[in-house]
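Protein record

Derive tokens from sequence
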Amino acid sequence: MSKDNTIMVEVAYALPQRQVLVEVELPPGASALEAAQRSGIASKFDGVDLDNGTLGIFGHIVAPSQVLRDGDRVEIYRPLIADPKEVRKARAVRAKERRQH
């Protein structure tokens, strides 16, 4: 914790070709959503919806109200384009078809 009774966290957002990390200074008791909002990342990228999006801390999904600790990294996740289960099923079907020919 910094000397003036604040915490420092990082907020991360990544696209396939670009990643942004922003350091944010917050009061103790601040939430993951507050950090994401204060980072300004939503204004730098089209389609970032903090109010309905998914947030995480070090790779673990958390509620927007999750209270942060000094040194946390808040991650803003993009919505999935395809359901991973459906992608795996389709891949398995294609592999099976190739084996049969």
User: Anything to note?
Assistant: The chain is about 30% helix and 30% strand. The mean pLDDT is 89.
